Amino acid sequence: MKKDQRVQHEFNYLKKQYPKIKQQVAESKNKKLWHHEAVIRNKIKDLKALPANHLGGYRETYDGYVSLLEEVSVRLLESYNKSNNTNYRFDEIVEGNFKAYLNSGIISVLVTSHIPKIVAEEFSRLLPENPKDEYPTARKMKRKFFLHLGETNTGKTYNALQRLKQSGNGVYLAPLRILALENYERLNREGVPCNLLTGEEEIKVEGARHSSCTVEKADILNFYEVAVIDEIQLISDSQRGDAWTRAILGLCCPEIHLCGALNAKEQLIKMIKDCGDDLEIKEYSRLVPLQTQRARVKFSDVRRGDALVAFSKRKVLSLSRYFSERGIKNSVIYGDLPPEVRRFQYDSFISGENHILISTDAIGMGVNLPIRRIVFTEIKKFDGEEFRFLSSQEVKQIAGRAGRIGIYDVGYVACMNDDISFIENQLQIQDEQIEKSVVGPSEVILDIGWLPLKEKLALWSTREESLKYYRKKDVRDQILILDKLRPYKLSEAVEWRLMMLPFDVNSEELLGQFIIYVEEIFIMKTGKLSKPLLNSHTLSEYEEYYQKVNLYYSFSKSLNLDFDEQWVYETRKRVSDEINRLL
Questions:
Q1: For the CA atoms of the chain, what is the radius of gyration?
Q2: Looking at the predicted structure, is the pLDDT value of residue 1 above 60?
Q3: Whole-angstrom distance, CA of residue 412 vs CA of residue 460
Q4: Cross-strand bridge partners of residue 333
Q5: CA–CA distance, 491 with 489 (Å, rounded to integer)
Q6: pLDDT value of position 129
Q7: Which of 11, 230, 477, 571 has the lowest tally of Cβ within 10 angstroms?
């Protein structure tokens, strides 16, 4: 068959099919419309592939199929609007999207193009271009920032806390619960009544006008005379940095002290000046010098006051077992340990009961300890995505723990492998400057309709910040939670609260416990949560059980459920005692 004849044959077939399909559409119920829509779009594509210049009736046939597609699309859209309580219009969706409409259909264009466009416009309308403008009360104040920046173990936080103690009311914001706990106890011990507020507990002290909190618990609606924000360089942390950014931009406080690493200096200056606030900078240097030791450290060289640093729980426990078997008592620190256990381990080292300390890089952010020498057992760590060499800031944070005024007038740094040149280089080079602070999503996102919270959050995360010194928070954990919550059809306000709960979503056990709690409250309507069960008596199981107890607490507090708070505190203590016994 010649080409022209073949084209004519194909066109005749498409032309002949039109009235048949039109009749089917007229008689079809909504469930069948999806099939008809796909058939009609394919017919239109086939028509567009034919040369139309010599085909009689081509325009009428083409327009007929397009008109029929519109009829089907309008009916599909009406069904969608009815199911979702929306009022989308066909012409608004197709305008500017006709090609995509022919390729993928009306609902696909609605969901992948039209709604995201509307939501993006709502983001632009409701969310200010500059994150500082999300905090109008703070913008009306004239604030002054005092930047205490420098190396580890140089008295930055100590000096800031002296001003906090002198104030009529104030707040200390910590990166870790154990630091919030330490300064809560310090302030109360020194005659300044202070409350404790973290994601795991609330302890109210009679007459207290000061609070020691984890940074996520900062109350930006309250007025403070003095605020101290610790480890301020964490503004750049992809998962938690938004809490520090929020505190800087939003605290209603005329005097704010920021303590942390020097590489945050320029970024902090930009943010503070942009807010129209004043600032004063004090840079700190070590009073106790650091000295590297070239000789490779052997196990037999380890002495009282040494801290061995590894980068996994497995390695820390292995080293601890090695020294314990040889009669060398040791304290251990790693990320999974409850704060009460860390406190016991720290105190045993400080008192001299335990001769050495074995720790992950958790040692780099915590209480000051009488450490004679830091010994790096390795120089690579797994950061959740890859094994990499330690950064200069990580080396400085860890090595800076060596030395203590009045106890060890020189802090020594050494390695168990031939890596001392790397450590020396990292100690000497200038830290990479922080160039962007992390910002998180605002609750105003709940005021935007058209999409489920998960999709809105994903869309928010791809929206570029207009100011180049801010970047979006990594919301993968929150999106995972929202995906797990989808079958339960909860309100967005409840979803928002639940996605903010502080637990490790990458733990299958904890995520499973979370889903059990969701079903207890929203499916079985129990009104309160069941207490988690301890499955075995291993170290790992106790650590996981402790986290389940924390989840029981934080889930109950978030939704204002009735729960056994006394049981929480008693169980934490019992589990912490068992962990200490096993260690």
A1: 31
A2: no
A3: 47
A4: 359
A5: 7
A6: 86
A7: 477
Find out whether 434 and 264 touch, Cβ atoms under 8 Å. Answer: yes
Give the whole-angstrom CA distance, residue 557 versus residue 565: 10
Asked whether 256 and 143 are in contact (CB, 8 A), the reply is: yes
Higher pLDDT, 87 or 241: 241
Averaging pLDDT over each range in 87-101, 353-367, 444-458, 472-486, which range is the top one?
472-486
Q: Tell me how far apart the alpha carbons of residues 143 and 161 are, in angstroms, rounded to a whole number.
A: 18
Q: State the pTM of this model.
A: 0.83
Three-state secondary structure call for residue 547: helix
Are 372 and 340 spatial neighbours (Cβ–Cβ below 8 Å)?
no
- What sign does the dihedral 548-554-555-556 (CA atoms) show? positive
Contact 106, 94 (CB under 8 A): yes
Chain-centre distance of CA 341, in angstroms?
25
Identify the H or E element spanning 278: strand 278-284
What distances in angstroms separate CA 108 from CA 29, 68, 72, 79, 94, one per listed residue? 20, 18, 14, 14, 11
Give me 428's structure tokens. 């000497």
Write out the two tokens for 541.
Answer: 């199981």
How do the residues of the chain divide into helix, strand and coil, expressed in percent and rounded to 5?
Answer: 50, 15, 35
Residue 529 carries which side chain, given as an amino acid letter? L
Is the confidence at residue 522, as pLDDT, over 90? Answer: yes
At which residue do the structure tokens 């889930």 appear? 555
Please give the structure tokens belonging to residue 515. 């889903």
DSSP secondary structure letter of residue 502: -
Q: What percent of the chain has pLDDT over 90?
A: 62
| The two three-digit tokens of residue 494, written as one number | 């409840």
pLDDT tens column, 379-422: 999 877 788 999 888 999 899 999 988 889 899 999 999 889 99
Q: Tokens standing for 403?
A: 């030395």
In this predicted structure, what is the pLDDT of residue 3?
Answer: 63
